[in-house]
TrEMBL record:
<feature type="binding site">
    <location>
        <position position="111"/>
    </location>
    <ligand>
        <name>Mg(2+)</name>
    </ligand>
</feature>
<dbReference type="GO" id="GO:0006753">
    <property type="term" value="P:nucleoside phosphate metabolic process"/>
</dbReference>
<feature type="short sequence motif" description="Nudix box">
    <location>
        <begin position="92"/>
        <end position="114"/>
    </location>
</feature>
<dbReference type="GO" id="GO:0019693">
    <property type="term" value="P:ribose phosphate metabolic process"/>
</dbReference>
<protein>
    <recommendedName>
        <fullName>ADP-ribose pyrophosphatase</fullName>
        <ecNumber>3.6.1.13</ecNumber>
    </recommendedName>
</protein>
<dbReference type="GO" id="GO:0019144">
    <property type="term" value="F:ADP-sugar diphosphatase activity"/>
</dbReference>
<dbReference type="GO" id="GO:0046872">
    <property type="term" value="F:metal ion binding"/>
</dbReference>
<dbReference type="InterPro" id="IPR020084">
    <property type="entry name" value="NUDIX_hydrolase_CS"/>
</dbReference>
<dbReference type="InterPro" id="IPR000086">
    <property type="entry name" value="NUDIX_hydrolase_dom"/>
</dbReference>
<keyword id="KW-0479">Metal-binding</keyword>
<dbReference type="InterPro" id="IPR015797">
    <property type="entry name" value="NUDIX_hydrolase-like_dom_sf"/>
</dbReference>
<comment type="similarity">
    <text>Belongs to the Nudix hydrolase family. NudF subfamily.</text>
</comment>
<feature type="binding site">
    <location>
        <position position="91"/>
    </location>
    <ligand>
        <name>Mg(2+)</name>
    </ligand>
</feature>
<dbReference type="InterPro" id="IPR004385">
    <property type="entry name" value="NDP_pyrophosphatase"/>
</dbReference>
<comment type="function">
    <text>Acts on ADP-mannose and ADP-glucose as well as ADP-ribose. Prevents glycogen biosynthesis. The reaction catalyzed by this enzyme is a limiting step of the gluconeogenic process.</text>
</comment>
<keyword id="KW-0378">Hydrolase</keyword>
<feature type="binding site">
    <location>
        <position position="107"/>
    </location>
    <ligand>
        <name>Mg(2+)</name>
    </ligand>
</feature>
């Protein structure tokens, strides 16, 4: 007999209070949950970092087999990275009244100056579910990499973004070497390495 699969109905939220509210929020939750052995757990208290949800976009040129990466400073990387200027995919937060697809298109334009000829949802995933509720919605965008030039970002958001156009193989080599080590970019480039042949083939069929 297959084991019972638990759902959100098997968690009882007993209380919630806000510990901090700024650009992000920190909430304290009290809850209990069903146990694999049967019955219910004791009351559990956890602090959860509530930063909202986000999109991440992989700009890929299937005609040239190239990716467009952005470089910007990430202060939280200062402690553990050789340099806090990281190579990343495009990403941005989703406001409560926004649709992920539209945010993906907007962030691509703001951070790279590029418009996608097509943009496709790939998957979604939790960034760090042990302490954060954030879910990333991952897209790949078909772009013309020859148009990726200049500096980008919104001044009011203190963004200072430089573009890098790399061959897919060079970008993936940076993942293997550890030069690219932020989770969303690693996951996106690994996905591309597994799927680039089908993307190139589909692009060639559309051009015929």
């Amino acid at each position: 007999m297959a084991a019972e699969k638990f759902t959100k109905d098997d968690v009882q939220v007993l209380g919630q209070r806000t510990l901090y509210r700024g650009f992000f929020r920190m909430e304290e939750y009290r809850f209990r949950h069903r146990l694999f052995a049967g019955g219910w757990s004791d009351e559990v208290t956890r602090e959860v970092f509530e930063r909202g949800h986000a999109v991440v976009v992989l700009p890929y040129d299937p005609r040239e087999d190239k990716v467009v990466l952005i470089e910007q400073v990430r202060f939280p990387a200062l402690e553990t990275s050789e340099s806090p200027w990281l190579l990343e995919l495009v990403a941005g937060m989703i406001a409560p009244d926004e649709v992920a697809d539209e945010v993906a298109k907007r962030e691509l334009l703001e951070e790279t100056g590029l418009n996608a000829s097509a943009i496709s949802a790939v998957s979604s995933y939790l960034s760090s579910p042990g302490g954060c509720s954030e879910r990333f919605f991952f897209y790949w965008a078909a772009v013309d990499s020859s148009k990726a030039k200049g500096l980008h970002g919104l001044a009011e958001e203190h963004e200072d973004i430089k573009l890098h156009v790399l061959s897919r193989s060079d970008a993936y080599a940076k993942v293997l070497s550890g030069e690219i080590d932020n989770a969303s970019t690693v996951l996106g480039l690994q996905w591309l390495q597994l799927n680039y042949q089908s993307l190139i083939q589909a692009n060639e069929q559309e051009r015929q």
